[in-house]
Write a structure and sequence with these properties.
By secondary structure, this protein is mostly helical. The protein folds into two domains: about 10-60, Homeodomain-like (Arc Repressor Mutant, subunit A, Orthogonal Bundle); about 75-210, Tetracycline Repressor, domain 2 (Orthogonal Bundle). Helices cover about 75% and strands about 0% of the residues. The protein has helices at about 20-40, 40-50, 50-60, 60-90, 95-110, 115-125, 130-155, 160-180, 180-185, 190-205, 210-220. Helix 4 (about 60-90) crosses helix 6 (about 115-125), helix 5 (about 95-110) runs antiparallel to helix 10 (about 190-205) and helix 7 (about 130-155) packs across helix 8 (about 160-180). The longest helix is centred in the middle third of the chain and has 29 residues, at about 60-90. The radius of gyration is 22 Å and the shape is elongated. The termini are far apart. Mean pLDDT is about 85; it is low at about 1-10.
Length: about 220
């Protein structure tokens, strides 16, 4: 086979967007495809049609770039969550249903939901040393606001219990939205149906929390 007939490398078509946006898009695509370990600085730079120095200049490091990718997708959802929670407070309608509605709704009905879902699908498969800093960066502040609001609905319950309940809500939300396996869980229903079911499930979980003695009695 002659040199001229050999297969040529795939040509990378560069986006016309600004350098930061190209880096963000390239890093997000590579992270979703290959995870943190598979997104090399060279691969990001080549895909973004920039040199490696540009990544360091704009984001400092690969970790800094990944954090910026997460913030870009998650910040609009969290902004919507905060606004809806503020509206609940302004209406003086602080029920656990209203609070959980404000937390869950933006994930299902938001123009940023689809790209955020793809990104979070990969984040949730990463090792703890990668996922924990990202989750703390993206969610700790807003979840704290919702935990405080939820705790006000149950003043006699320990804060640690409220936090654990909220962690169950977040876990159910992740499983509902990310849909890790249709083979196991079946096809996803419409977003409206999933939202209503998850909201009812979460509200019931907060309101109906049996004591250990009740559980033992039921199992006897």
């Amino acid at each position: 086979m002659s040199v001229n007939s050999a297969r040529k490398p795939r040509e990378v078509r560069c986006e016309t967007k600004d350098t930061q946006t190209r880096l963000l898009n390239a890093a997000e695509a590579l992270f979703i495809d290959a995870g943190y370990a598979g997104m090399s600085a060279r691969g990001i730079a080549d895909r973004a049609c920039v040199n490696i120095a540009a990544m360091a200049y704009h984001f400092g490091s690969k970790q800094g770039l990944l954090e910026a990718v997460l913030i870009r997708r998650i910040a609009p959802i969290n902004t919507s969550r905060r606004r809806r929670l503020e509206a609940v407070h302004e209406r003086r309608a602080e029920s656990i249903r209203a609070i959980l509605h404000a937390f869950l709704w933006p994930v299902f009905f938001n123009e940023h939901e689809a790209p955020a879902r793809r990104l979070m699908g990969r984040v949730m498969t990463e090792p703890a040393e990668v996922i924990e800093p990202l989750l703390n960066l993206g969610f700790s502040d807003v979840i704290e606001q919702f935990v405080v609001a939820a705790a006000a609905c149950f003043p006699k319950q320990d804060r640690a219990l409220i936090v654990q309940k909220f962690s169950f809500v977040v876990g159910a939300l992740n499983l509902t939205v990310l849909r890790p396996s249709e083979h196991i869980f079946g096809p996803a229903p419409a977003a409206e149906v999933s939202f209503d079911r998850l909201l009812n499930f979460s509200v019931d979980g907060f309101q109906q929390w049996p004591s250990l003695s009740d559980v033992n009695k039921d199992m006897a």
